[in-house]
Amino acid sequence: MSRRRKRGHAAEIVDFASFILALGALPTTAGGREAGAGEQGLLLFTDSDRPAAIIVRPSGHSAEGPSFAGRVRAALALLTGNGRRTREAAFPVGELQAECRDYLAFADAEDDRQRLLLDPRLEGLFQAKFEGTGSKVFGEALMAAFTAALPADAGGEGFPPEATAFAPRIAVEDPASAHASRFLFPAAFRSGETRFRFMPRSFGAFENSKNAGAGDEDGEYWFRFGVRSPALALGGFWAFRGGEGIPAERLASLTATTAKLAALALSEEFRRAGIEVSVAAAAVARPSFNAQGARSLEGTLSAGYVRFAFRAVVPESYLPALASAFPVTVPAGAAVAVAADLAVAVDLAVAPVPSDPDLAFLVLGRRLRGRLDAAVLEENAEDYPGGEGGDAGGDTGENTGGPVRLVPFHAAFRLLPEDDRRRLAQNFLVREVAADELAELFYFRKTISGEGGSKRAVVRPQAFDLNEFAACLPRTVAETFVASVREGASSATSEDFIRMNERIYKDLAGDLRSGSLALSLRSERLLAEIHLRYVYPRARKRLDGLIEQDQPLAFLRALPPRIFRSLVDRSDAASLAPAFVGREASIEEIARWCSKRKLTYIREEARRLALRLSRGEEYPDVLCGRRDALAALAREITEREQLERGAAEPRRTAEDGGQATRSLRSASAAPLKRGR
């Protein structure tokens, strides 16, 4: 295909496929392939932290003449309908594998070294734009956009001045990965039993008007904070709005306490970089800002059961300057402590922080992926009473076993992008849990002792928005769920709550592996990691106990060898292999009773099962059941042999008696021998 020929007249656009052809791209199946050596991905952002497009190409590669990337930029400006420029950053393709699978893949028709990955939602934007304008008008607009994207020396005009602006704000679509927000406010902290959780929603230019963002000064509490080190002096404001139903005096105290605790938490995260954070003890009047120079991070802050609309307002130089002040670097791929230690996590040896604050927010968030993902899970984990082996506490139904550490499902759900939350709720939860039982996944009861005696009370999850979750459900299911919550529905005990959460994670892991449920790859990995780290180890306890006690092999060895051999003869290799997981060397004990082919299969299957266990892909309960089945079969063989032996004894006695009678008769009938 000649792209030069296409520039001379309007392209005939009839559907999304012809739109892709006009870009100079062709369909390919290589979008999510393993990264090639030296490949990098050019990420093109429009108005969110999810790239609208990714151009994969060899590092340092640049096309001669009219740029493939230029046409992609022009097409994105046209489809988004606002003519915005794209913010761009390059990353090694190896760091992008977690999302490449979620994109539509195409190849550059003229340069097979380049691939184009497009956000699937662009197809919907194309359809809306195409249907609104028609084929001819859309084709002409696309060609005009291509021409405008060319530099002047290539016959283009450049983007017109009114189309050179970036989107004013960046929407946060993946809250679990918005790590750059940690430079402005801690993601999670706690004080006693109260949990504080911040969920970022957007970052960008601060609109300097009384009615912008979180609201005007009435009911909004502003606190000045400072970030200092021997070589650094920065600052900004934290603003809280909300807390409906709380008296003004109490609300002022709560926001001041929250700001103080946040400063302490942020100081701890900045500690290794020698940076301290301070905050004013009392709220100040709403400050005025230079509208051109201020940036704001906006989102939702939960302080226990109280919710605030929150924003941090800082100068545009704040984020690049603060991130560049972190002197501690670590080798690529090095493990990071569970604590969200930004000083250790930021590796400035990779590349300098962009001076543009919005691009810095995008780049830092991605650079911290992997290094802080484990910290996100641990920040959302809780210790629940009632572990395995606990005894019931009297007639209360309370489990008094040891605490169980778990990322509750409601916390994991909150960390997912909105699209994945809806898919998970509508394509999985409503199938797995009855509408009137959904509350048992979020609430449980516990006994609370007081002056008037003990009583049973419902424990509600902190930082959980009932209405936000209900909005992801089908209408009738949502209505039943909300009604059951208001009626006080809950799990009977914390152990029931734990058991239900673990069952959901187990079933969810199975559905994701089988492909019956599809989420973005990052969400699938996050949920799989929760299952593998917090749920799976408890499920493995019984299997690990059997392996440690060498069961059922120890039981089988104690049987007569003929019984053990009979078991091996009657069982196929797939049935025998689970008994040797964790005890692979013991396979040699049955070698004399197996064919070479059967023995090879047992070894391979035992190794395969062990590998699947290490990945969390093989559920321990299944292997425990298969090991138990072997022991049960050995008992059955033993009992059958004993029964057969018992039935054989009377027959032998009868046969011996009959022989004696016949011998006696023979002796009686024989003539007497006379002695001499």
Number of strands: 20
The CATH architecture classification of the largest domain is: 3-Layer(aba) Sandwich
In the CATH hierarchy, what is the class of the largest domain? Alpha Beta
Number of domain modules:
4
Low-confidence stretches: 1-10, 153-163, 211-217, 328-340, 389-400, 660-676
Structural class per helix/strand content?
alpha+beta
Largest sheet: 8 strands, antiparallel
* Amount of beta strand: 15-25%
What level of helicity do the residues show? 40-55%
CATH structural fold name of the largest domain:
Chemotaxis protein chec
Q: Summed up, what is this model?
A:
The termini are far apart.
Would you kindly provide a written description of the structure presented here, covering whatever features stand out?
With 676 residues, the chain is of the alpha+beta class. The chain has 4 domains: 3-167, no CATH class; 171-379, Chemotaxis protein chec (3-Layer(aba) Sandwich); 382-536, no CATH class; 549-636. It is built from 22 helices and 20 strands. Strands 7, 8, 9, 10, 11, 12, 13 and 14 form an 8-stranded antiparallel β-sheet that branches. A 6-stranded antiparallel β-sheet has the order 1-5-6-3-2-4. A two-stranded antiparallel ribbon has the order 15-18. β10 and β11 (232-242) form a beta hairpin. α5 crosses α6 (135-149). The radius of gyration is 34 Å and the shape is globular. Mean pLDDT is 80; it is low at 1-10, 153-163, 211-217, 328-340, 389-400 and 660-676.
